[in-house]
């Protein structure tokens, strides 16, 4: 249980990462991924990387520069332009629905205009899921200049789209539906220089 704790990625650039275990049975037709990050990086960095043997960017939350997020599904991406952070925690949720190809992006509890992405696609279940690095191969192929440095917390993955109420609940750290990956019952393994510490502030 990592409640009120964070992963601190100490080095920049870094070769460290955290492996998450999800135990998915079947391909995803819908999903929502949420997490909170705290960093002063201005260079590109990966927040959440979900790779299959067929596709290294099966699901990827990537920040190429301040004020911009990229959300990948099955190797294709849409860009969400956001106000530059004011040096605070940023909470992001991204959800995707195969039937409509609708990608939703929420920043700090607020929805951005929806975009179209990979209609009819299915996300593979046999995945390597990593925090802190961007996979260019299944479970590897890292570029340290895409690595994350800073603090990550409140990582969740659901095999469903969340309602707007639940998106806001995730931002506010309220009660959430059972998840494939849940911060309060996370199965993880640290690789390299990552430290689990209490959160310094809300």
Q: Could you explain how this protein is built, in words?
A:
The chain is mainly β and 202 residues long. The chain has a single domain (5-198), classed as Jelly Rolls. It is built from 1 helix and 15 strands. The chain has one helix at residues 164-171; strands at 5-9, 17-20, 30-38, 45-52, 59-65, 68-73, 76-81, 90-97, 102-107, 110-111, 115-116, 127-131, 150-158, 188-191, 194-198. The strands form 2 sheets. Strands 1, 3, 8, 9, 10, 11, 13 and 15 form an 8-stranded antiparallel sheet that branches. The chain has a 7-stranded antiparallel sheet with strand order 7-6-5-4-12-2-14, with no helix packed on it. The radius of gyration is 15 Å and the shape is globular.
Main features:
202 residues; Jelly Rolls; eight-stranded antiparallel sheet; seven-stranded antiparallel sheet
The mean pLDDT is 96
Output the CATH topology: Jelly Rolls
Name the beta content range. 35-45%
State the end-to-end CA separation: 18 Å
Structural class: mainly beta
Show unreliable segments.
Answer: none
Query: What is the CA-atom radius of gyration, in angstroms?
Result: 15 Å
State the order of secondary-structure elements, H for helix, E for strand: EEEEEEEEEEEEEHEE
Domain unit count: 1
Largest sheet entry: 8 strands, antiparallel
- The number of helical segments is 1
Level-1 CATH class name: Mainly Beta
Compile the SSE list and pairings.
Layout: E1 5-9, E2 17-20, E3 30-38, E4 45-52, E5 59-65, E6 68-73, E7 76-81, E8 90-97, E9 102-107, E10 110-111, E11 115-116, E12 127-131, E13 150-158, H1 164-171, E14 188-191, E15 194-198
Antiparallel strand pairs: 1-13, 1-15, 2-12, 2-14, 3-8, 3-13, 4-5, 4-12, 5-6, 6-7, 8-9, 9-10, 9-11
């Amino acid at each position: 249980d990592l409640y009120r704790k964070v992963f601190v990625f100490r080095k920049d650039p870094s070769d460290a990462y955290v492996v998450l275990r999800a135990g998915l049975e079947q391909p995803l037709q819908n999903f929502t991924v949420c997490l909170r990050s705290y960093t002063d990086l201005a260079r590109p960095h990966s927040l959440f990387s979900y790779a299959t043997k067929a596709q290294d960017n099966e699901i990827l939350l990537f920040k190429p520069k301040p004020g911009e997020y990229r959300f990948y599904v099955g190797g294709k991406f849409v860009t969400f332009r956001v106000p530059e952070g004011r040096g605070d925690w940023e909470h992001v949720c991204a959800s995707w629905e195969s039937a409509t190809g609708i990608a939703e992006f929420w920043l700090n509890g607020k929805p951005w205009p929806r975009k179209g992405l990979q209609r009819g696609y299915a996300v593979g279940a046999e995945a390597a899921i990593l925090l802190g690095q961007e996979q260019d191969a299944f479970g590897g192929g890292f570029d340290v200049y895409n690595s994350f440095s800073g603090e990550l917390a409140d990582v969740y993955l659901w095999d469903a789209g969340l309602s707007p109420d639940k998106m806001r609940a995730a931002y506010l750290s309220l009660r959430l539906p059972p998840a494939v990956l849940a911060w309060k019952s996370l199965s993880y393994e640290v690789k390299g220089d990552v430290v689990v510490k209490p959160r310094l502030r809300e």
